Amino acid sequence: MIPIIKIEDIAHVRFAAPDLGEMQAFLEDFGLSCSTHNGRLYGQGSGGHPFLHATETGEPAFKALGLRAESMEDLEALAKAEGLAIEALDDPGGGHVLRLTDPDGFRVEVIAGQQMAAPADALADGPHNNASARPRIREAVRLSQGPSHVLRLGHAVLNVSDFRVSEKWYKERFGFLTSDEIELAPGTAMGAFMRCDRGDQPTDHHTLFLAQLPQPVGFLHAAFEVAHLDDLMLGHAHLKSKGRDQAWGVGRHIMGSQVFDYWRDPWGHELEHWTDGDLFTAADPPNKMPFTSLLAVQWGTPHPMMAGESK
């Protein structure tokens, strides 16, 4: 299959909420800096992207998934193939957008030409002492308390009505590659972790996970990369101290290998902190994994569904 374009990365997620002030308070506890523009609330990370999370006023809802095209030429090629018009992007950073609708009615915003800022200096990690190497000598660990430092948006997860139909739609348009396909039984797929095709350039294990679970079609979660493990744990403590609603964590996933920590915004939308994920190139073949590996952990807190079964 030759895709129309190959996207560069995920760009943003959009929501609606009835109280932008309440959403801002949550996002700042989560580790995003916030600003307003044209009546909308935007959450920024420190990686230089104009925004990662956007909220408009309205009834609580997931509104759109944003994907970043590599160039305006790619955006124009996609527009021609879809028979749609490119519009100016009325958000921080400007640029242009092509708005598509996937088979389940999810709005997909493909963007190009945003003005990027210089990334902030990375939050230092380590050095760390362990049994085989002890590089930290005559220096104590003294961590600053507060929210995690979000760098970027890493992936989103959608529950779809027909996995194979959605998989075909996203792969044909955006060039996604399968990292791990999830099977309920041999030969019966219920979803896949899919990554961007950047050739020899390493990319996250997954940028989009499509799942066909026995629940309503909808948004499942969006995942934001933080500086490192200590940063994730500091953010965990901060969110807990603020009385925020934890969904799952802390633990290490099997597929993707990330250390994870999931929280819910005031209207129940799940946002994940993660760090230390797998990176692959286009040369790495797809795998097939059982459904049990989706909910299991290498270490840490079991998924609430698994924990309930073990009682």
Name the descriptors.
311 residues; alpha+beta; 8-stranded mixed beta sheet
Task: Write up this protein.
The termini are far apart. The chain is 19% helix and 38% strand. The chain is globular and about 65 Å long. It has six helices and 20 strands. The protein has 311 residues and is α+β, with helices and mostly antiparallel strands. The protein has a single domain, classed as 2,3-Dihydroxybiphenyl 1,2-Dioxygenase, domain 1 (Roll). The model has no long low-confidence stretch (mean pLDDT 96). A ten-stranded mixed beta sheet has the order 19-10-11-13-9-14-17-16-15-20. A hairpin with a 7-residue loop joins strand 6 (87-88) and strand 7. The chain has helices spanning 20-30, 72-82, 163-174, 229-241, 291-295, 304-310, and strands spanning 9-17, 33-37, 40-44, 53-57, 61-68, 87-88, 96-101, 107-112, 150-159, 177-185, 188-195, 203-204, 208-211, 218-226, 245-253, 259-264, 270-275, 279-280, 287-290, 297-300.
